[in-house]
Amino acid sequence: MVIYAKIKSISVLLRVYLGHALMNLVTLPYYRYFRQNTLIPIKTIIKSYEHGGESDNIYRMFAAWQDRKLIELHFVQVAATLLSGAVIGCFSWIERDKEHWLGPASWYCCLILSLFAILLSSTEALIFNTIKSPENSISLRDRMSMICEVKGTVHNPAPSGDKEKGKLQMPQTERAIIRWNMVFTWQAPMMLLAYSVIAFLMGVTIYITTPLYTDDLSLGGKSAAIFYLVGLFIGGAVFVWCSFWAHRFVNLDEPRESPHLMGRL
Prior knowledge:
GO terms for molecular function: metal ion binding. By secondary structure, the protein is mainly alpha-helical. It is built from ten helices and two strands; from the N terminus they run H-H-H-H-H-E-H-E-H-H-H-H.
C-alpha cells in the first residue's frame, strides 16, 4: 500500500509538471497576455472567493477582468481582420515555381486561424457584454462557474442586514476548483491570433527567401532576401525588447476594481 501511494503521488506530480510545461510551451508566443489577462486574474478571483471575500469585492474583480478581456477581444477582432486582409493580398503576389510548399500552406493556415479568431472573439465578447448588463445579472455562484467548479453548500448565511449592505461573506464550506477547460476557452482567441501571425510571417519569410535555397533570381534575388532578413531581425529584436520593458515595472496581474462599477455601487 505504501509503495502504491508513493507511485500514485509521483504520477500526480508528474502530470502536474507536464501539464504546466505544456501550458507554458503552447502559450509562449503570447505569454504575457495569457498570464495577465486570463490565468492570474482567474486565480486571484478564485482565491478571494475561497477565502470568504465580500461579494461586492468579488463582483468588482469580475467586472475588472471582464473589462480587460473585452479590450483584448476587441484587439483580436481588429488585428485578425487586418491579418486576413493582408494574407489575402499575398495570394496575388507573383508565383514562384520553386517556392517551398510550406510558404503557401502557412498562408492558408494563417487565413483559417485568423477567421476563427474573429468568430470566437466576437462570440466571447457578446457573452461578456451580456452578463455585464444589469438586465442580465446572474448570481455570484453562477458567475464563478465560468472559471471554476464550486463545491459545497451554504450552511451559515449572513444576516439580512449584511445582505442589504452587500457584504455577504462566502461560506467557508465552499471550495473552488479551477476549470482548466474554461481557462483554455477564454484565452483561445488570443492563441488563434498569435499562431496566425506566426504562420503569416513564416509564409512571407519562405516566399521572400526562396532565392537563398533555389536559383530563382526574381524580385531582387538574394540581395532582397538578405535585406528582408535583416529587417525581420531588427523588428523582432525591438519588439521583444520593448515588450519586456513595457511590462517590467507595471503590475497588471491582479484584476482591480472597475471604476465604472464602483460608480454604480
